[in-house]
Write a structure and sequence with these properties.
With about 230 residues, the chain is mainly beta. It has one domain. It is about 5% helix and about 70% strand. The protein contains 1 helix and 10 strands. Strands 1, 2, 3, 4, 5, 6, 7, 8, 9 and 10 form a 10-stranded antiparallel sheet that branches. The two termini are about 25 Å apart.
Length: about 230
């Protein structure tokens, strides 16, 4: 459903960029998208009680979408990586010791019928030292290094298909109905995922564990109505 919501938001963005419409004018948009996620962690989730210790968790998210309608085309794609280090004490309390993440351009490829896919990206890591409080824009940043992603995702197990419709909006503003179909499948990740600091230190963000992943594709048609 993530892809349905994203493609719907892109369609609304296209409408917002267009000239004001007359009452009860109808717009139709069509969209499609790919989505993938890979996770790596040494937290022993299979155990009923997590033993005290220090663990890590790394998430990779990748997406690509395209929406066409009313003579316009809007494309959106990107790759995000988030890494955290966690401590569990003797009482079972969890504490996050370290967290960082970054998003950037990348390439997501998914094979037909979710047979497999790949995620490739080189994402700059920066720390913002000074923010514009009004706009949220970073005014001063320092480079920390780069995150390099080169993962192959191999589909495994059954493929699940979904179909759904929904509607929303409010009178006097945009009102819409949407129709979505798609499929998802579990996958096995393999490859490299590293963080290289500016001084050349390299950290393997997979931690050397097997990890797990998922693939998803969607194709959605929308009808948007303005009152």
């Amino acid at each position: 459903m993530r892809r349905i919501l994203l493609v719907a938001s892109l369609a609304l963005a296209l409408m917002a960029s267009a000239a004001p419409a007359a009452a009860a004018e109808t717009f139709q948009f069509r969209g499609q998208g790919n989505w993938a996620n890979a996770s790596f962690s040494d937290v022993p989730f299979s155990e009923e009680t997590i033993p005290p210790g220090t663990y890590f968790y790394t998430d990779v998210w990748a997406s690509s979408s395209i929406v066409t309608g009313e003579g316009q085309t809007y494309e959106d794609s990107g790759v995000c990586v988030f890494h955290s280090e966690i401590t569990v004490d003797a009482d079972g309390n969890w504490f996050e010791n370290n967290f960082f993440g970054a998003c950037g351009a990348g390439q997501l490829t998914i094979a037909r019928r979710l047979g497999g896919g790949s995620v490739v990206a080189t994402i700059p890591m920066q720390e913002c030292l000074n923010w514009d409080k009004d706009t949220g824009e970073c005014l001063e940043a320092v480079d920390l290094g780069t995150i390099d992603v080169d993962l192959t995702l191999t589909g495994t197990g059954a493929t699940y298909r979904y179909h759904g419709t929904s509607s929303g909006g409010s009178a006097g503003l945009y009102q819409y109905s949407q129709h979505g179909t798609g499929s998802s499948r579990a996958a096995v990740p393999a490859g490299t995922l590293t963080f290289t600091t500016t001084d050349g230190s390299v950290t393997d963000l997979t931690g050397g564990v097997a990890g797990w992943a998922s693939l998803q594709q969607s194709r959605d048609g929308y009808i948007e109505v303005v009152h």
